[in-house]
Design goal:
Strands 1, 2, 3, 4, 5, 6, 7, 8, 9 and 10 form a 10-stranded mixed sheet that branches. The chain folds into 3 domains: 55 residues; 222 residues, Alpha-Beta Complex (3-hydroxy-3-methylglutaryl-coenzyme A Reductase, Chain A, domain 2); 88 residues, Alpha-Beta Plaits (2-Layer Sandwich). The longest helix has 26 residues. Strand 1 and strand 2 form a beta hairpin. The chain starts with a helix and ends with a helix. The chain is an alpha+beta fold and 402 residues long.
Amino acid sequence: MDEYLQKLRSGALKLYALEQALPAAEAVAVRRAYIEAETGVALPTVGAYAISPDRVTRRNCENMIGAVQVPVGVAGPLRVRGEHADGSYWLPLATTEGALVASVNRGCSIITRAGGAEVRILADRMTRAPVFAASSVGHAAEVVRWVEGHLDLLAEAAATTTRHGRLVGATASVAGTSVFVRFEFTTGDAMGMNMVTIASGAAAEVIERETGARLVALSGNLCTDKKPAAINVVSGRGRTVAAGVFLPDDLIRDILKTDAASLAEVNTRKNLVGSARAGALGFNAHAANVIAALFIACGQDPAHVVEGSLAITTVDPAPGGVYVAVTLPALPLGTVGGGTSIETQAECLSLLGVAGGGDPPGEHAKAFAEVVGAAVLAGELSLLAALAAHHLARAHATLGRG
């Protein structure tokens, strides 16, 4: 180790090049020792981890020095009645927020006792939107018309880059001389951002060649990736999922300690009116909480919680109770690629029965999306009930989170 530390100090070896000279585990240890010496901070716990660094250092994390451990709790069982996920599920939730797992667990309990959450995937399209420069507004309009008339040609170009992705839509829009083309792809079991970016590049080359518009950037922010945007609420991104359950009055009283009218009023005044007054893009209680916990546990890109949080929660009066639903317009997720193959994350996906590729392709990702939708519904129900019954502060205090 001393030899490599000296090379790092002298500049003869770069931190990022350690894996080229050493096995991955040794490279991580040398890099950590160097950082410890440079900063004077000991990192023994960061350096104690169970995952194998071999694949992680190649595919997931540059300049690795160890791992941060996030506690994983389990909530459930949660009865899900989807078209791809149909059964009872234990939810792995990675979080450091006390009361979150307990809250989701209570939501799981009432949903299961009510017969389960009905879940449907309404759309399945990952997007990438290159921006082109036209020479005039007339030229920009010509580009739009060309794109609208040549989807087949663009799909053929995209197909040369991937066996799993398929271009299924392209919408062009104009701002002055800027032309944005929002490509939509199905991506099988992958979340698919890398896949659609490469495929969009091939399609963009065709647009340049055929229209004379100049490609400025492969992402023009109309995608919209990892940023709150109304287009994702309206048009969707990734999987669009809706989950709902009818709750009878007796279960609301016995489990949630409130009543149907109070649930509906809290949802209207908080999730709908309050969110509108704030200018929010999401109309929900805390969808991001549940999505983040599942995403971290299951190897998803945590930044996509931004899109996932653009959820709408509704509470409709019904004879003998209420029908509560959540709609998640933009849920980018996958069961292959990214962090899904890291050992701990793969175990959490296996707990849900969705690890790896599905048969047919896309089946596991769709099932995972349905489970996430039902889990968000559980979280929404529990928090709405805690607010309606004025129990929120007491629950946090009881669990040591004032």
